[in-house]
Specification:
Radius of gyration: 24 Å
Number of domains: 2
Strand content: 5-15%
Number of strands: 11
Helix content: 40-55%
Strand order of the largest sheet: 3-4-1-5
Shape: globular
Distance between the termini: 45 Å
Length: 360
């Protein structure tokens, strides 16, 4: 995957985080959790907490981030907030927006500069055929987008805003500082040591090649693609959700954008061996396993748990104390009652089989 940057001044090359691009990467991780074992805890917990209606809408539109990333999700000029980037999307013309949104397959002709399905009957049929292979809900979505681009664009914006409210705003707060720091580091590296150092630091799968024919950034991917940054620039977007993917936007007529993964400990920090041992020992007891099943469904007082499981309140307290010491239970006071609840995030990191068993 080659980006020709011959004659491009360094100030037209930017490293900057993007909330919209990060949301796109997060949605891909939710749609394809097997691609992202490092994010297992986050994907399991987030998917379990999604309201069914939101999960259903995400499924309807997931070809925009599942097998390929729609170019509309990779802004060339990142903003400080998701709302600002969505406002920028609203200003894009329908033909360009719909062509990008319906880039359903990695083999799409769209990346080779084919016309929008809004104006080309062959591309229209192709978009519908590709959607048909993914189910009737996807076909209905594509038909709606082709018939009513403004209405469908508003629907997509509401979907992304609902994702932001449901889970992404909190996640973005956790990762944006690290992504901004990485972007600043790459920018400073480019200024002090040159673009070649910054590109290689962003990903070992990228290099800067320079010869008598010009300069180009080359990404080692199992595809063939070529684009030019002439008249535009190149934007590099760090992502905490991206590994192992290196995404390169190379559509003719679009500014080249590269989304590269950065190491992060905010989403899946490995617990110490002693902590894992404590947790495994805590759930090994049959009664504590049963208590976990109750506590996974809501908050309960000691007395309620005692009545439900046919044991004394002191016995419940002892078992809860073990679970709490292992970091598996959260306790809060509500008036004169002390309520206990399972920390689903901590449990998810032990393994999905255990989480599924207590939620079953």
């Amino acid at each position: 995957m080659t980006i020709d940057i011959t004659g491009l001044p360094q100030e037209r090359i930017a490293f900057c985080p993007s909330p919209l691009a990060e949301l796109g990467a997060a949605l891909h991780a939710l749609a394809e959790p097997a691609h992202h074992p490092r994010l297992h805890a986050w994907t399991t917990t987030t998917a379990a907490a999604l309201k069914p209606e939101l999960a259903d809408r995400l499924h309807e539109a997931d070809f925009m981030w599942r097998s390929t990333r729609a170019d509309i999700l990779l802004p060339p000029h990142p903003r400080g907030t998701l709302a600002e980037e969505l406002d920028d999307l609203d200003r894009m013309d329908d033909e360009k927006y719909v062509g990008s949104a319906l880039e359903i397959s990695c083999a799409s002709h769209y990346t080779r500069g084919a016309p929008s399905p809004l104006v080309d009957e062959r591309m229209r049929r192709r978009a519908l055929d590709l959607a048909a292979a993914r189910g009737p809900r996807q076909v209905a979505f594509v038909e709606r987008m082709l018939a009513d681009p403004p209405g469908t664009r508003a629907w997509i914006r509401r979907l992304l805003e609902d994702c932001d409210e449901a889970f992404f705003a909190d996640t973005w707060r956790r990762v944006c500082v690290q992504l901004a720091a990485d972007a600043r580091h790459k920018t400073e590296l480019m200024r002090r040591k040159g673009l070649a150092e910054a590109v290689t630091a962003a990903s070992a799968a990228m290099v800067l090649e320079e010869d008598e024919q010009g300069s180009r950034i080359v990404a080692d991917k199992l595809l063939q693609g070529r684009t030019s940054a002439e008249g535009s620039g190149v934007t590099f977007l760090p992502t905490a959700f991206g590994w192992p993917h290196l995404v390169a936007l190379h559509t003719p007529g679009w500014q080249p954008v590269v989304q590269y993964p950065v190491p992060t400990r905010d989403l899946g920090d490995a617990a110490a061996t002693q902590a894992v041992k404590l947790r495994l020992e805590a759930i090994a007891h049959p009664m504590r396993m049963r208590l976990c099943r109750s506590l996974a469904r809501g908050s309960y007082s000691t007395g309620e748990l005692a009545d439900s499981h046919g044991i004394t309140a002191p016995e419940v307290s002892r078992h809860v104390a073990v679970l709490k010491k292992a970091g598996l239970v959260i306790t809060q006071r509500r008036g004169r009652y002390v309520l206990h609840q399972l920390d689903v995030t901590a449990v998810a990191r032990l393994g999905s089989d255990f989480l599924e068993s207590v939620l079953r």
